[in-house]
Give the backbone structure.
Amino acid sequence: MKHLKHLILALGLMMASPVAMAETCPGVEIPYELSTLSDFGNTTDTKSKNLASHVKLSNIQTSCTYKNKEVSVDIKLAFEAALGPKGRNHSIEKPFFSYPYFIAIINPWGEVIAKEVFAASMTFLLDKHDMTYYEGISQIIPVSSKLTAKNYKILIGFQLTDEQLAYNRAEIEAQTPPPTTDEQTP
């Protein structure tokens, strides 16, 4: 009976840990308009027939630990990429793409206190037109206490050119359904 009591207590602590961790870890966000990157190569014509590749940030996993007035956030990112019609010039080609993305730390006042640009590099094999690449990164944020860590935010997104950002915004707008007649203002 004594062992059962310890097991129940241990299970209770294990179940409480993710909640406690979520309450003290910085939030991690991917702004929707920065979650994808479409590469049209050297052309400014963004018709789908000219697409070389497309990649999106998906499935992000995080965990954090607090020690010595620092919170360490471990992030696992998944990049899902696909070749477009212009992605492979020859059937024997193994296209290589390097997708720039950033990780920024935002303080409790909404200011960017750190930003670093990385690259997710991917080579498509001969018989593959899509692939998923995983990358693990750690971010260390100095904080005054464990409780203040939750007031910070980590933003992750693709480092887009002005043209790529405009393309993403146009794609998002095209996906948004028009307002119903009840929502329209006269």
Notes: The chain has a mean pLDDT of 83. The two ends are 72 Å apart (CA to CA).
